[in-house]
């Protein structure tokens, strides 16, 4: 049987990459750029356009991407956050980048929990970006740069295309307002897992009330994740500090670290420090 030039490229890759490694790199690019064209991938990888088209067709068949005329778009491109998550983007991005860096500095190949929300969604993106350069040798040794366990559908969708991240999504009933999974199935699964660190978004953090959110069902799932975590990193903008919402997630004694922005006042932060919470201001 005669092996054609393009068939050989499918298996080995003209740039010397195996098909599996080539796909990993394509998916990593897709996660960053959200869309790729056949031409740009062929040029960047040094392979034929027909090989790229076959790769894209196969990725689409496996629901790893959506096929378009001349290329692909990320499977997550249709999953934006609801419009209510539109304020204080710059503060949240700084908080997210700092929280992600803190996690990766303190833990090697950690198991990281994330509940739903704008800030935790940005933390997920930052974790993906900050682990992009993980070497292939390191990945072969540990399998993944990190494992993320999340109760939010949009966070799972954000990370699933990143080959260096193992993504675990809890079961349960999805809430349209936040994309969070709630109910007995989510709580039961959360209680079977152990986390190194939980990065937790909230509507309020207060020395007396602890961490709070607006929905008891979401609070129940997040409480289960807190109970299975070695440490808890709360993330939230300064308007959340010193306030409380409807449903308690956990006591302040269960919070290890708070990452917030410089708008938080000393009067709001000092009671948290006195309660033993490490405060990181960015």
UniProtKB/TrEMBL annotation:
Keywords: DNA-binding, Transcription, Transcription regulation. This is DeoR family transcriptional regulator. One of its GO terms (molecular function) is DNA binding. Pfam families: DeoRC, HTH_DeoR. SMART domains: DeoRC (SM01134), HTH_DEOR (SM00420). Residues 19-74 form the HTH deoR-type domain. Gene3D superfamilies: 3.40.50.1360. PANTHER family: AGA OPERON TRANSCRIPTIONAL REPRESSOR-RELATED, HTH-TYPE TRANSCRIPTIONAL REGULATOR SRLR-RELATED. Signal peptide: none annotated.
């Amino acid at each position: 049987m005669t092996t054609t030039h393009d068939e050989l490229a499918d298996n080995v890759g003209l740039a010397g990459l195996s098909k599996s490694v080539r796909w990993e790199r394509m998916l990593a690019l897709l996660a960053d750029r959200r869309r790729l064209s056949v031409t740009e991938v062929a040029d960047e990888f040094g392979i034929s356009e027909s090989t790229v088209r076959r790769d894209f067709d196969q990725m689409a068949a496996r629901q790893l991407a959506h096929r378009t005329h001349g290329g692909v778009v990320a499977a997550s491109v249709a999953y934006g956050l609801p419009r209510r998550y539109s304020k204080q983007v710059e503060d949240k991005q700084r908080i997210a980048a700092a929280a992600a860096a803190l996690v990766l500095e303190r833990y090697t190949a950690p198991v990281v929990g994330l509940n739903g929300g704008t800030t935790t969604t940005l933390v997920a993106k930052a974790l993906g970006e900050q682990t992009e350069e993980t070497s292939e040798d390191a990945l072969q040794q540990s399998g993944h740069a990190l494992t993320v366990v999340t109760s939010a559908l949009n966070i799972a969708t954000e990370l699933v295309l990143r080959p260096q991240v193992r993504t675990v999504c809890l079961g349960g009933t999805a809430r349209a307002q936040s994309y969070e999974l709630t109910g007995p199935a989510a709580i039961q699964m959360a209680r079977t897992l152990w986390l190194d660190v939980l990065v937790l978004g909230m509507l309020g953090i207060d020395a007396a009330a602890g961490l709070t959110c607006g929905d008891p069902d979401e609070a129940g799932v997040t409480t289960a994740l807190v109970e299975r975590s070695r440490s808890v990193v709360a993330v939230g903008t300064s308007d959340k500090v010193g306030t409380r919402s409807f449903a308690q997630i956990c006591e302040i004694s269960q919070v290890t670290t708070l990452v917030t922005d410089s708008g938080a006042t000393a009067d709001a932060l000092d009671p948290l420090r006195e309660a033993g919470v490490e405060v990181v201001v960015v």
